[in-house]
Amino acid sequence: MYKEAYERWLAFPLEDADLLPELENIRENDEEIRDRFAVNLEFGTAGLRGVIGAGTNRMNIYTVRQATQGLAAYLKEQKAEPSVAISYDSRNKNVAFAEAAAGVLAANGVKVYIYDTLMPTPALSFAVRALHCDAGIMVTASHNPAKYNGYKAYGPDGCQMTTESADAVYAKIQNSDIFDDVKHIPFAEGLAAGSISYIEPSVIADYYNNVKKQSVRPGVCEGAGLKLVYTPLNGTGNLPVRHILKEIGIDDITVVPEQEMPDGNFPTCPYPNPEIREALQLGLDLCKQTGADLLLATDPDADRVGIAVKDGDDYKLLTGNEVGVLLLDYICQARTEAGTMPKDPVYVRSIVTTSLADEVAKSYGVTPIKVLTGFKYIGETVLHLEQKGEEERFLFGFEESYGYLAGGYVRDKDAVVASMLICEMAAYYASIGSSIIEQLQRIYGTYGTYLHKVDSFEFEGLAGMELMKALMASLRREKIEEIGGCAVVMLEDYATQTTTDFTTGAQTVIDLPTANVLIYHLDCGASVIIRPSGTEPKIKVYYAAKADTLAAAETLQKKLAEGARDLLGL
Asked: What pTM, to 2 d.p., does this model score?
């Protein structure tokens, strides 16, 4: 079947000139043909994501159109005249994919609102709500390498699409032919007819105003003399982040020149991911040249931000967990002092994010809420509060993977607001003769030293996906008794929604949706979490080690990492 699909694509008058030569080049390569045509890109709650190229298992205008046809059919069943907002980041083929989606929607009688320039993921979430749209599309592959692109789908609440909605859209996609069953018109035709409209500048201005409202110490950055280096990693953050920082009074910003302009090839960082030191290296070098106080780095769709802070004569990269705990502590302290802490406040974190934040939250009387991995679950929590008229209870939400949100104006992580609050936090601590590093040490001194690390193991292609499934199944078949010399005392299996206490044999139900996640709690006070990534061909292993000193925590974490590799046979 996959060879027939390949031959059909070869014979089809493909609009994208890059696709036919690609297909010709693999004519004698059965493995390549199978990888591209044996399966289709799967549409899930994160939409589509894959390598750019020809084939049903690749990102191209035809897979984008087919997915959008499914979305349009689904929306038309829900509403007579639905509307969709679209944005895109700096990825290769970004405009082509955004316009392809718009052309399908317009041809199906769905009104389209699209930004006339690349804008961050949170600006898409904002536009969906501001324009009362029924769905949203963000063309992005987040922090994946340059060969990837993707298509995030959003619901009318500005959150990423629910499982139920995504399943319904996927059913429509599966029942359609990629060429014959897709309606589309040229983008220019839809624009001229008014079925496609550009999003008004007032929406962007409103987004910025809502970001500024999340400030907890307004004016603290004015005259503070904060000196920054910033890199948008060739993505969408350059203008929005610099705009908001200028608005709050920060003028001394040096942008990494090689990474300033949008470039989907990401020539200076193969992985444009602020979690990875290599991506931040040019920024760190520039910090040393300029004597900057702080480095900010946003990923290509500007929903995540990484930082480095001055630490003596050097710069220290902080983890997503550390920044999240610092921001939570800063927001709680500021709002407590200002008397603006709401009644029954809550903060939200994912199950793979540090429990240290729970301890900090409780010290301020803030209730922690745990959700599955994926920021949509944090967004859904805000939505549920809003539906009860209690949105103001939400203080902050974050994931260890460098995603943060304060306020309910968007329902996804937002590197623009996070950048603002990080700078505000740095300026405040400087104003009282302290620093972000010193505050982090105070937190560790109070609650103990927490060390969190993540290993990612890649599994490329169809064979890799099959191996990932086999490894997770193997872990569930076997009773794992120890990891890195520490005995397993409790296992949380989110696929079966059960927690098993190995000391008593008791089982309890996990009150969260199912997910392919295993959490091993160990007698040394540490934990190991194993889960396949929802957006990349990887198995991720998270280590959480707590000790009296950093050295002791690092020693423990290394033992856990060795044990986890043994478990996975890697």
From this structure: 0.93
